[in-house]
Amino acid sequence: MVDALAVESCSRCNASAVIHQAYSGQHLCDRHLASSIRKRTSKELRQQLRLPKDARHEDGSLYRILVAISGGKDSAVLLTLMHDILGRRRDVELISGCIDEGIDGYRAPSLECARQLAESLDVRFETLSYEEMGYERMDEVVTRMPAMGENHDEANGMMPCSYCGVFRRQGLNALAQKVNADVMALGHNLDDMAQSILMNLQNGEIDRSVRLAPHTEAPIDGIAPRIVPLRWIPEQEIHAHAICQSLPMYHGDCPHAPGAMRQQSRGIIADMESITPGARHGLLHSLDEIRRLHREANQGSRSEVNNCTECGEITSREVCQACTMKQWLAETA
Ligand SMILES: [Zn+2]
Ligand SMILES: [Zn+2]
Fold first, then answer.
1. Cα 171 versus chain centre, distance
2. Coil, helix or strand for 94?
3. CA separation for the pair 38, 255 (Å, rounded)
4. Distance 36 CA to ligand 1 centre (A)
5. Residue 50 pLDDT grade (very low, low, confident, very high; cuts 50, 70, 90)
6. Does residue 122 lie within any of the structural domains?
7. Number of domains composing the chain
8. How far is the CA of 234 from the centre of ligand 2 (A)?
9. Residue 3 counted as domain residue
């Protein structure tokens, strides 16, 4: 039995370890953790984003990648890695963007972390708020939720994260359009992916899992495809790496998150992983296989997409969820 308090040394050198990968049996020091994360991320990035030697457009303009940052550890690690891997390319421009949800005590400090990080890397930084998009601040949305639930069955029992997720998605698309991004990179880690896959399975929504990023294999017209270069990196490793690198990051949690389904899923995935190390990787491998089978089975048949009659965004409904929610908000003003 290994004493939990004893500091293990790195499996690759003599330095003390900062992380234990139960799924691989390895202990890694900060330096070897950093090189391991960089290697896995750049391999995944190459697979999700096949850039030609010169990625510039025909008119000579640069290939633009919008990196969505939140001030948290995941997107901080994502931006520094993307900058490290692609920063020297003259044909590619990285732009960072942060969505301001309007959550008091949470967004102001995290936005500052995001801005600091972008400035330290000399990466252009853009923000967009829910108010600028024509929604309300999240703090206001939350106070109107009971009224919206009374007015509409569909809104009944919805959690703040349901609104926030829809608005943020719309906001990121708007930011991508504003900066003319060719692709958008998101900081989802392995735990995020495993949680989403599990939640979609629980809800019987395989098609939602199939539509999870990366989208570069099956892009949808008019929307910057999303890539998720960190999707194989466990949250704990990203956290340890961000601390070792002293990246500016905000540690606070969103005050509206408690009660969300993701919180339960987080606990279940953590338990699964501790009982069966490698379970998260297994879930994501399963999804990739399901996605492959799904694509094979649906070859040639275009998935059914409409344009929202209100805003023109791509949706499976007549009026997209964002516009529907905007309507609910207007009714309760
Ligand atoms: Zn080492
Ligand atoms: Zn719409």
1. 13
2. strand
3. 32
4. 10
5. very high
6. yes
7. 1
8. 35
9. no
pLDDT tens per residue across span 193-233: 999 999 999 999 988 888 888 987 777 777 899 999 999 99
Instruction: Provide CB contacts within 8 A for 266, sequence distance 6+.
Output: 191, 195
CA distance 220 to 282: 27
Q: Which ligand approaches the C-alpha of residue 325 most closely?
A: 2
Task: Tell me the chain's radius of gyration from C-alpha atoms.
Answer: 21
Inter-residue contact 10 to 1 (CB < 8 Å): no
Residue 306: CB atoms within 10 A of its CB come to 13
Report d(CA 95, CA 184) in Å as an integer. 9
Kindly report the three-state secondary structure assignment for every residue of 32-58. HHHHHHHHHHHHHHHHHCCCCCCCCCC
Indicate whether 73 belongs to any domain.
yes
Closest ligand to Cα 134: 2
Span from the CA of 123 to the centroid of ligand 1 (angstroms): 30
Mean model confidence pLDDT for the chain = 92
**Tens-digit pLDDT profile for residues 287-298:** 999 999 988 988
* CATH number of the domain encompassing residue 286: 3.40.50.620
Inside any domain, residue 178: yes
Report the pLDDT value the prediction gives residue 1, as an integer from 0 to 100. Answer: 47
Domain that holds residue 116: 38-303
* pLDDT, tens digit, 9 for 90 and up, residues 11-24: 999 999 999 999 99
Q: How far apart are CA 85 and CA 89, in angstroms?
A: 9
Which ligand is closest to the CA of 14, given by its number? Answer: 1
pLDDT tier for residue 37 given thresholds of 50, 70 and 90:
very high
Axis crossing angle, helix 321-331 with helix 138-151, rounded to the nearest 10: 80
> For the range 7-13, what are the long-range contacts, defined as Cβ-Cβ under 8 Å and sequence gap of 24 or more?
none
Contact 158, 147 (CB under 8 A): no
- CB 187: neighbour CB atoms within 10 A? 25
| C-alpha span between 95 and 83 (Å, rounded) | 10
